Every structure is written in structure tokens, then in C-alpha cells.
Amino acid sequence: MRALFFALILAFASAAVAQDKPAAVRPEIGKPLQAAIEAIKAKRGKDALARAREAQAVPNKTPYETYLVTRVLGQAAVAAGDSTTAASALESAAASSAAPDAERRQLLAAAAAQYYALKEYSKAATLAQRYMQQGGTEKSIRTLYVQSLYLTNQFGAAAREISADVEAEEAAGKTPSEEQLQLLANAYTQTKDALLYGRVMEKLVAYYPKRDYWQSAIYNVVSRPGFSERLQIDLARLKFDVGAMRNADEYLDYAQMALIEGFAAEATKVIDKGYAAGVLGVGQEAARHQRLRQMATKSVAEDKKNIAASDKQESKDGKTAFNDGYNYVLLGQSDKGLAMMQQGLKSGGGFQRVDHAKLQLGYAYHLAGQKDKAIQTFKSVQGTDGAAALARLWVIRLNRTS
Description:
CATH architecture of the domain at 2-136: Alpha Horseshoe
CATH topology of the domain at 2-136: Serine Threonine Protein Phosphatase 5, Tetratricopeptide repeat
Oligomer: single chain
Order of helices and strands: HHHHHHHHHHHHHHHHHHHHH
Number of strands: 0
Distance between the termini: 40 Å
Structural class: mainly alpha
């Protein structure tokens, strides 16, 4: 900000040289002002401020002389690092009836920046808003305005402004900045709008897929009212896939859920990843981890026998066929497994929530490397119990993979 407004100072100074004619400004004012302008150009801020004060002390100034003195005083104060004097002088110059419109906008911008530096955020927001209302388009002032709203606890207003900026950038095919989205997420946190906060986190993981953002996006889903506990294993699958597992307990919980559901091959995959990550097989619980690993490995062999025997059954409900098909996918027989899952889902028998089954089917397509079908399946998931929110995150995840 400081570099930008020092550039504005020099622009003002150049304009002043052209405008300060003897007929417009008396010599006793013009001479010290010219010296102040030259000192500003030479980056001698304190000297510039002293010469500007000489001009300020001259009595009976005309409105234009008062404007010019106040403007140069503000510029000199910026150069001297005196933000208090600068903010007041630049604001006064901007309010002068003698100020040309183009310079008025620049003065408002410079004054807003000085108030921001002084942490007088309410004044900064007011002047930045006036700058924009008068046709100013400098992006840094827009940013200053939004940040000032946020810092004066006007979180709802800040969120509306940032959201409008994000939508405009996306409509133009541009990527919103990470800082912009972070500020928007924080504003929605302050207004306790969990739904809109979740949508911003979806944008963050889409544009900047960091582990912390994935954890926040996933936590937002599970913490919403109405989240179904039946989705815990689907939640774990997403966390596992995006690398958002935080500790040994999360690996163990996922593996145990998979075992309970009858998916020993899935449990083994999770446990192996936990060992590879260095969070399982260590510490005081290492023996317990090893026992779980051995049990999962043994269960995989049993599952292979069970689904082979199940194939010989002439009839079984849709859910059984669906889960057997998922096990085939886990065991590397994707074509056979996906066909069984699709047929089982079409039959409809045994499913408490079809949308939950679709989440599992979408994940199976992903495991089988069929990205397009996985996305198509996830996009079909509906409901207000968290299933649709998880599906949206899966679509974001898969759209970022090759």
C-alpha cells in the first residue's frame, strides 16, 4: 500500500508543478510549496513537511490556495511517515470544492490508506466507499474497503462485498485469490452461516486443495444439523482419499467400520496406509494395531470364499448383491463388481437410503479408475443428511485429478 500511495504523491507533485502559476498562487505560498514538492521527489519527507507548513502559515488564503497547501501538506506527511497529519490533510483536500474530480478520487484513496495504517478502520471504510462511489476502480482500495469492513466487525457487509468480487472473478474466468476466500470464510464463520461457509470451503479445496482446507470442508459437513451417522464410513473414505486423516484413531475407526460392514480388503488397505504413514504400529498401541492388521488379513481370505459361495445362490436381495459387488471391486475384479452393484441398486431391495448407496457406488467407480462415471454418480446424490454435501466434495476432488 505504501508504495502505491507514494507513487500517487509523485503524480500529485507533477500536477502541482503544472498548475502552480504565479497568477493562481501567491509567491509566499508558491515558493515553499514548490520546495516541498521538490523535497517529496527527492524523498526528503521531513524537509518537505517543514516547507509545506511554511505555506500553511500564510494567512488569508484563497480556496484554491487552501486546497493546494492542504494537498501538498498531506503528501509531505506521507513522505515523512506522519500518518496522522497525512490522513487529516488528504481527507480535507478531498473535501475541498477546489479539488478537481480526478484528484479528489486519488486523495480519497490516499486518505483511506492512511487511516487504515492508523487502524482507524471505520474512517478508512468510509473514504474507500466514497472513492468507489465517485468512480474509483483501483483494486487495492476495494481490498482495503472490504478488510476495513471486516475489521470493524461488519461481517455481513464484508461477506456480501467479497462474495460479489468472487462471483465477478469466476464469471470472468479468473481464480479468486486464496486470501480473498479465506476472508470470506472467516466472515461467514463470524455470522454463523454454516451453509455459506461450507460453500466457500468447497471453493478453497477446488482452487487451493490443501490438507487443512479439506479437513475444514469435511468437518463442516459432519457438524451440520441433520448429519446422518450412517455416513461415517463415507466420510472416512473421502478423508482417506484426500489425505485428511489426522491420527491413528481415525485410521483405526475407518478400518473397524470397514470390517463391520464386511469389507476386509478395504480395512487392510487403510491399515497398510496407516503403517506407511508411520501412525500405526508405533507407540503403546502398536500391539493392538498389529492384531487388527492380522484380523483384517485373515478376513480378506474369508471374504473371498464367502462371495464365491454367494455367487452360487440363485436369489439374494439387492443390498447383498451390491455389497458383494463392492468386494469384487476391492479385490480387483472391477467389471464384475460394478455390474453387480448396478444391478443390486436397480433392484432396490434392502437399502435404507439409496443416496448412501450411490456414494458407495461413486467411490467404487473411483477405485476402478472410471472417473467420469464416478462424477456422474456423485452428481446424482441428493438429500439433506450430508450425503449430497459429501458428493459435492467428491466431484471437486475428482475434477482436480487427471
